[in-house]
Each structure stands twice: as C-alpha cells, then as structure tokens.
Fold Fucose isomerase.
Amino acid sequence: MSVDKIKLGFAPTRRNIFSADAAIEYADYTRKKLDELGVDYVDIKDVNDDGLLYDDNGMNKIADKFQNAHIDGLFLANENFGTEYECARLAKKLNVPVLLWGPKDEAPAADGSRLRDTQCGLFAIGKVLRRFQIPFTYVKNCDLDDPAFEQGVRDFIKVCNVVKTFKNTRILQIGPRPFDFWSTMVNEGELLEKFNISLSPIPLTELVEKIHEVVDKKDPEIVESENTLKEIADVKISDKDLQMVAALKVAIKKLAKDYGCNSAAIQCWTALQDEGLPVTCETDIHGVISELLVEAATLGDHRAIFADVNCRHPDNPNGELLQHLGVFPFSTAKNKPTLPKSHFVFDYPGSVGFQAQDGNYTLCRFDGDNGKYSMLMGNAKTCAGPYEQGTYIWLQFANLNRFETKLVYGPYIHHMAAVRDDVVPVLYEACKYLGVTPDFYDPIEDDVKAYLRGDSSSILK
C-alpha cells in the first residue's frame, strides 16, 4: 500500500542581535535531523549567505521558492530568537499548515552571556502569528534528539496530509440520496463555500451506460478485478454476477477519473476502497469525507472501514456492532472474504462478507447541520462477538452510553469511518486548519493535548 507524500518548506530563522553563527550551526543540525527522519523538504540555503529567514528580501525569495515547489506545510525553526514578523509574513503568503519549533538553549557562557534565546523568541513568534490570524502547530522547545521532536514532525506531516486531502476533495455523487435516508442530507453549496469541497453529481443512468461500455469493450481491468477477487475471496456467485461486480468497480473508477474526483458516494456498495478511492453507500457525502480524512491521518498507510453503528452487544455492556454490506476494504479482513449469493437485508449477489481485523481503532465522523460543522473522534478496541453477515466488527468502548448519546444528539449520524491506528491527535490538530470544531465522545481532550505537547507517547490507556 503506497504512503501519501508530503513536502515541507523548511525556513530556519534568526534575529540580528543574537549570534548568526550559532543560528547557522543549529539550522544545519536541524537539516541533518530532518534528513535522518526521511522528511521531504525544500531548503532555503540558496536565498542568502546564511540560509536563514530574517529580512523582507529573503522572505519574498523564500515565499516564491516555496510557492513554486507547491509545499504542503511550512516548518519555522527558530534557531535563535528569530524574526517574528518575517515568520508571520511568510506564513500569511503561503496559507499552509505551520509548524513552530526551536532547539533548547545551551547553558550560558561562563561570563553569563547567551548566544540564542530561542525559547524567548518562540513566545514572540507565537504571539505575532496570532496577530496575523495564522493557525499553527507547536512542538515544545527541546533538543533534536528528544522523542518529542520526531513525534511532532511526523504528526505534523500527517496533519498536512489531512488538510491537503480536505482542501482538494471532489466527490462523485452517483444518483440522488435514497428517499428514506433523510439523515444523509447535505448542503452542497455550504460545503463549497466553507471548505472548497465540491460534488460532481451524475445520474445513475450514466453509471449504467459506463458499465455497459466497459463490458462491451471487454475492458481488461474487468478480468483483472475478477481474477483478484477469485484470489483473495471465496466467490460463491455466478461468473456473470462476478463480471457485473467487477464492471461496476471499473465503471466507477473511470467515472471518478473523468470528473477529477478522489472519492464517490452511491446507493449501493463497491469494491474500490483498497485502491484509495473511498466509496460510501446511501450517498453519504459527509461519510466519504470522514473516510478520506481518517485515512489521510495515517498518510494512506491504513485503509478505513466504513460502517453503520448497528446494535449493542448481546452480553458486553460496552460492546457495539459496526457493520455494512461490503464497503470494508479487503485489506482490513481478519478472515478470508466471501462473495455470497445474497444478504439478509437485500437479495443481491456479491455483497462482500468478512470480519475486520482485531486491534485498536480510531473512529471519525465529519458532519454538520444548521451551518455548523464538527468532527467526532475517539478510540475503541475490538472484542469478541457473534457472527454477522456482511462486513462487520465488534468494538468495545470505554463507555458506550457516551458514544450512543453523541450520535443521537448529533450533528452526527450512525455512519462511522475507522482505521486500525491511533490518529486522534492528528485529526484534532488538523481541525484548527480546516475550520471544523473537534469533538469527542470520551473525555480525552486533556490527554490529546498532553500528547501534542510532548508529555505522552500515546493517548491510548
């Protein structure tokens, strides 16, 4: 599975009244550490003799260079006190997520003099970024070898990926929402106005025509998909039905490409999740956004399941069934998937069935109504439960009543995206750049903040 790529603009900064040599030295230390971590970054060593940000001339050159490189995030490294207004001016021009950090100051010299005053400058930069109304992410003032630095940089890269995904989302909406599903109603104009998220609506007849087209042309992707399904799943449907399952997948994939979409929503299930093109059912637009974001928070390293929150566990008071008609990626399967002849809800062939893998999951739901949008997030772990048809997982919550109440009071509905990873802090931090209110179904915000400031390596207890 390919990992998403993110490019940072690296802008180390200094202020003239402090040692330029010390700032240059620490900027080079920072570059070396970024190289060790494998971070993809654009440097500024060519903009002036110091390779540092400290004046308008350099700032404008840096802005041009970063814009031409299409960076996804800006890393302001405060190598001495730093020039706060140039940092803010640069960030304002670029309009990307901002990471602020500076190396811990060394002990004063024997005569009591200091070379850098980095921490003091961080306070000043933070204040001026606020004056410019620039949201930013802060990693505590620490040494480069402190685990908090690596954790902060890696998490920031994931945050950048969430923001990049969100701001570049275009959803292929195949047909209208089903009449009975008023809960999946969305405000298309508001999504565009607030978030630049656009829909590309097409009628179901266009999908049918595309299916006939790929079948009539004997598109080789159909045979490839059929062979893949036979390899990874227990196929119990007829060859004709299998061909239609594969043709549906190929048709949606081609339509998404034609309309420049990174996801889709339709009334029924599909099998494109493993290829990085999430497709939600019941035409759940907010649901597919949730799926895109929670996958982006893993840098595309994990695919998300998308499920109905269905019913309580028969024995476990904090257990809950998450299930749907085959929209889980095959890569999330615990057991060999099955393509059955029918399902107890709908008598249609080919709705995939399997249990999802065990582990700790992050759950996510982007949603809104009445002009306000928020993101519900939290964790749950798998637990044993009865067999279910379709794709399913049993999850145990810290307190199921809290989770249930959140879904009832809203603005959320019973559809959740989930990944087998702990990315709650990444989603929480991303919200400040998205203009979305973070929300939790468990009282973990203090734990998330502790993690983000470097006091903890995990929020999972």
